[in-house]
Design a protein that fits this description.
This protein has 302 residues and is α/β, with parallel strands linked by helices. Helices cover 49% and strands 18% of the residues. The protein is built from 13 helices and nine strands. The longest helix has 24 residues.
Length: 302
């Protein structure tokens, strides 16, 4: 079954690669409508998150924001699939990096870096663009696919751009590689943590929210500079990522300071363009689980 599923996926990807870009983007509204109206893809989660964060939105404003978010989700889906058949030259035309010399300087000085990003813009193209355009090797931490054939295909095509994909359970390998030779460890750190006991809690849209502990733990343990990659859409199928320094010396700041800086930066970016973030992710599911169990001690109650 895995081979059949891969064959269908591979055929669709190849066909998509032959379709002119202008025709592909004409399908965005149709796919967005299908996701929202027919599949109702995580509709309850998406609307619930928007209401939680923006309680003062009118019904019309809420609906407008949700529709825009589904269109961006559809765009990202199509572009990610299209990315499998893109050449290095095509990616260079579609994705650029600002302030990349900052990462290059740290690498030249013998320092590895931790770059944090989020589910805004085309984060998959961002990882490929970094590997393609920066001097130090780029290590992207990801969650492996269950289909072994598709997994091999993803590793092969992503590796063609020079990106080193490391399964999340093997993050230690990427850390070791960066200890041996200056590199850049890329972490998309805005998802809900798997292990709540190790989570770092910090305000996010006025809600005490758990964040994954890994980025801060890695950065502090090695005193690697922490940077943020702000991905912005600059036109149809065109993106720019601006790299900004968050914390230069992690061991000189209090515990939790890196995570707080990341959460604050991310919140400001989302507030400026709220439709761009991945609202369909159950970002506050751990908060909901804890608040439904009053006997359980939590940072919210403390």
């Amino acid at each position: 079954m895995q081979r059949i599923a891969f064959g269908i996926s591979w055929s669709f990807i190849k066909i998509l690669g032959l379709i002119p870009e202008s025709l592909i983007y004409r399908q965005v509204r149709i796919i967005a409508w299908f996701l929202r109206r027919c599949l109702k893809y995580r509709k309850k989660v998406l609307y619930g998150n928007l209401i939680r964060v923006f309680p003062d939105l009118t019904p019309d404003a809420l609906e407008k924001l949700a529709k825009a978010n589904y269109r961006i989700l559809a765009t990202t889906l199509l572009e990610s699939l299209r990315g499998f058949t893109m050449s290095n030259e095509m990616l260079l035309q579609r994705f650029t990096i600002k302030n990349g010399e900052l990462l290059n300087r740290y690498a030249s000085a013998g320092k590895s870096t931790v770059l944090l990003s989020s589910h805004i813009g085309n984060w998959e193209w961002a990882a490929l663009g970094m590997a393609q355009q920066l001097d130090p090797p780029v290590y992207g931490i990801y969650k492996p696919l269950t289909n072994s054939y598709l997994e091999s295909y993803v590793l092969k095509t992503r590796g063609a751009f020079g990106l080193h994909l490391i399964p999340v359970k093997q993050t230690a390998q990427a850390v070791k590689a960066c200890q041996e030779k200056p590199g850049c460890l890329v972490l998309v750190a805005d998802q809900s943590p798997g292990k709540i006991a190790k989570a770092i809690w910090t305000p996010f849209f006025g809600i005490e929210t758990p964040f994954v502990h890994g980025p801060e733990e890695i950065a502090r343990g090695n005193n690697w500079p922490v940077l943020y990659g702000d991905i912005r859409c600059t036109g149809q199928g065109r993106y720019t990522m601006e790299i900004e320094l968050l914390v230069e010396n992690p061991q000189q700041v209090p515990d939790g300071a890196i995570t707080r800086a990341y959460a604050k930066k991310l919140e400001n970016i989302i507030r400026n363009n709220p439709a761009d973030w991945l609202w369909s992710h159950r970002r506050w599911k751990k908060v909901e689980q804890i608040t439904q169990q009053p006997e359980h001690s939590s940072p919210i109650q403390e």
